[in-house]
Design a protein that fits this description.
Blueprint (H helix, E strand, L loop, with lengths): L3 H7 L11 E6 H8 L13 E5 L2 E5 L4 E4 L11 E4 H8 L7 E6 L3 E5 L5 E4 L22 E3 L2 H4 L2 H8 L7 E4 L6 E6 L4 E6 L2 E3 L17 E3 L30 E5 L1
Antiparallel strand pairs: 1-6, 2-3, 2-5, 3-4, 6-7, 7-8, 9-13, 10-11, 11-12, 12-15, 13-14
Length: about 260
């Protein structure tokens, strides 16, 4: 299995950002979300926590990464790794919406807003050079293809229910706006999930929010979610056609 730490180190290190000061406001819910991506392997101390670099935070277990902040491809050299235990100490007794303030530099970070201030001095640990493994966009003006995170969150539900053999899903996609096919071998049979992607419109301005769902504007691939109520089924929406937010949904198939 590809490991971010080894892949990145093999390509070299980026520029240092040791002198960048930080002043970050983050919610308890965001901290908990980042910690889901951090390693629990005590032997990999440089991955057991959340790294802070400038106005960015990141967590990885070596195989999956979550980055909060702009410009993820900027160098992570000199990032200060705050161990998981200190984050748990900082958020103890707080609610999901409560906010923490993270201040400092690459030598000392102070987290306030919790029961008591928590400080972390720079340990002798090196965070993986994420800037070396994040691919550059080949077309800066191109539209991005999006997949609803709430749909991906349904995959563990099937994992738990059917005890998939490896916990991994084989992902296949033919091309832009083609259905995304995810296949896993369950305990007794194969499971297939199909998710219709959306084209995210790249705009500098704040996206228009849907009043009910709170999502930005997008255009959609043909929809598999709605079963026609009329015997004369309408043809699927054309690629790139503007559709109402929230109608794209996954389809799960249990294959004999």
């Amino acid at each position: 299995v590809s490991d971010i730490t080894t892949n990145g180190l093999a390509r070299g290190r980026g520029r240092g950002h040791d002198d960048v000061e930080m002043a970050i406001t983050i919610t308890v819910a965001e901290v908990k979300a980042l910690l889901k991506f951090a390693s629990e392997d005590a032997a990999r101390e440089n991955l057991c926590g959340i790294a802070v670099s400038g106005q960015r935070l990141a967590a990885t277990n070596g195989h999956v990464v979550a980055i909060r902040g702009e410009d993820p491809r900027a160098s992570w050299s000199g990032a200060l790794i705050v161990p998981t235990a200190l984050w748990l100490q900082a958020i103890a007794g707080l609610k999901a919406g409560d906010q923490l303030e993270v201040d400092g530099d690459a030598n000392l970070v102070t987290i306030t807003g919790g029961p008591a201030p928590v400080q972390c001095r720079s340990p002798k640990r090196t965070f993986p050079p994420l800037d070396q493994v994040i691919p550059e966009s080949s077309r800066k003006a191109a539209n991005s293809i999006g997949v609803g995170g709430h749909y991906l969150a349904l995959l563990p539900v099937i994992d738990k229910a059917t005890r998939t053999k490896s916990g991994f899903w084989d992902m296949r996609c033919g091309g832009e706006l083609d259905p995304i096919l995810l296949v896993a071998q369950g305990r007794e049979t194969t499971w297939t999930v199909i998710i219709m992607p959306v084209r995210l419109l790249r705009r500098r301005c704040k996206p228009v929010r849907d009043r009910e769902r709170g999502r930005g504007e997008h255009s959609s691939a043909p929809d598999l979610a709605v079963e026609p109520t009329d015997a004369r089924a309408r043809p699927p929406a054309a690629v790139g056609h503007e559709v109402e937010t929230g109608v794209v949904a996954p389809v799960a198939v249990r294959t004999e």
